[in-house]
Design goal:
7-stranded mixed β-sheet, about 190 residues, 4 helices, single chain, alpha/beta, two-stranded antiparallel ribbon, about 30% strand, 9 strands
Amino acid sequence: MKKYNIIYADPAWKFGNSVYQDNGRKSRELNKQYETMSIKEIKELPLENISADDCALFMWVTDFHLPFAFELFEKWGFKYRTVAFIWKKITKNGKTCANLGAWTMKNTEICLLATKGKMYDKRKAKNVFQLIEAERTKHSKKPLETIDRIEKIFDFNNKLEMFSRKNLQGWDAWGNEVENSIDLSEYYKK
């Protein structure tokens, strides 16, 4: 079975009854935008079996889901390293976007980096910036610039995008909005 050195994930986090506002449009229920998964369901994904001995996991996470992200890393055999990217969401006119939040207005999202094995010495670039300023478009659609930055940091052929919304050249994909190039059922321990 194929193992991956780079895994890029944007989990389909469940949000309860939360609502969001998208580019000034009417508020909508988050869980009606796409199929979501519980923390338990996400934890059960076989990332420990998909990942190579040396692997970097880049994972988007919301503020609320931070504690669960660390649980996932531990369950899957990864060690948290840093906040790889911070996405400052802007409008098509370059203005800062902001969503209502429980405590503060939300205008950024973070992508964490966790690793297993010896990935530190496998970096090909050490000058990749953390801040990404990119337009917020469709709900939960992440900037493609993130992929470019990951590929600048690491030069591996075995790359997988989990929860993919679009097939990317050079990447295998798994998600419910794309043609999957990996069958996860093969990776579950019997």
